[in-house]
Design a protein that fits this description.
This protein is mostly helical. It has twelve helices and seven strands.
Length: about 325
């Protein structure tokens, strides 16, 4: 049993830390890990739910929340740097929206359990940051090309000198969610899902199909498509294709890893009180009261059950 736990610990350290810790070292995690947001997937899903409610009440209002660098830098609408995150990736049908929210919450939670809260936070926030940087890069390209803005309701389409149209609404949470799915497919390739609730298929095949579609879209599209797809999925490239190690963990391995962490924390926990007779501490029973015995030689502490019933410890020279 000890050998199995030890080997598993080594594998976990080599795998998870090796896969995601190469670019972002443990030094940064120790320094900034306390600022990580636990259960980040839940907050992301809540943002989507709020965005969907806004869509139901006033669909056109979502146009004021998109990631449009022209509106940000030319009109001072800086809230767009944040509010684009609440726009849901799908607004077609309430049923599919609910299924999508539950699905991404589920896979995001599993990734956080395996990677750790800090690294999962870095993965998501880096994806959002790369998306913002990609939109700014495309904005500069539009300025250089002399783009002309054409109002489209609450949004705008920008026409370049060569006639190409740029729509910044393409920078959305859709590819952020897809980066989560690709990360899940790479981490749990053998997991099965029910395609259309009927067909069982391994996640790795869905990941391969989606990656192929992305490549096809990028090759068939222009500069705008390259920037949108590339910037939104750059976090996946950084975290996986530049890693030396790989790890694919099943749910059973996840439970073993969590149990090992709990055992490690329990073994490293320092207690303040311990009964010299029964050995119980405040961790065993929070209601226990501990006192030192003034008649014992040395600092011996006893719980209330043995404070008056123990045999007093005498100095060595008095022991016959």
């Amino acid at each position: 049993m000890i050998k199995c736990v030890k080997n598993y610990a080594l594998d976990a350290n080599k795998g998870v830390n090796g896969m995601i810790g190469n670019g972002f070292s443990n030094k940064f995690e120790r320094k900034f890990g306390r600022y990580a947001i636990p259960n980040l997937s839940l907050y992301l899903v809540i943002c989507y739910a709020v965005g969907y409610l806004i869509y139901i009440i006033n669909p056109s209002f979502l146009g004021y929340l998109t990631l449009d660098p022209f509106k940000i830098f030319m009109h001072g609408q800086i809230w767009r740097l944040v509010t684009w995150v609440i726009i849901p990736p799908d607004t077609s049908n309430i049923f599919f929206v609910l299924i999508t929210l539950v699905f991404y919450y589920s896979i995001g939670t599993q990734l956080e359990r395996v990677w750790g809260t800090y690294r999962y936070n870095v993965y998501l926030f880096s994806g959002m940051l790369f998306t913002i940087l990609g939109s700014i890069l495309l904005f500069l390209y539009c300025l250089i090309s002399g783009a002309t803005a054409i109002p489209l309701g609450t949004e705008s389409v920008y026409v370049l000198g060569n006639g190409a149209a740029v729509y910044f609404g393409a920078f959305s949470t859709y590819y952020i969610n897809m980066s989560i799915f690709l990360a899940y497919a790479a981490t749990f390739p053998e997991m099965q899902v029910l395609l259309m609730f009927i067909i069982p298929i391994k996640v790795k095949w869905l990941g391969i199909i989606y990656a192929a579609l992305l490549v096809f879209s990028a090759l068939s599209g222009g500069v705008v498509t390259w920037v949108v797809i590339g910037s939104s999925l750059l976090n996946f490239v950084v975290f996986f294709f530049t890693s030396r190690n790989r790890i694919h963990m099943s749910p059973k391995q996840m439970r073993r890893r969590q149990e090992f962490r709990r055992q490690t924390r329990a073994s490293n926990r320092v207690t303040k009180h311990k009964c010299a007779v029964c050995g119980r501490t405040e961790e065993d029973d929070p209601t226990l009261e501990f006192r030192f015995c003034s008649k014992c030689y040395g600092n011996y502490e006893y719980c209330q059950h043995h404070l008056y019933t123990h045999v007093h410890i005498k100095p060595p020279h008095e022991v016959k």
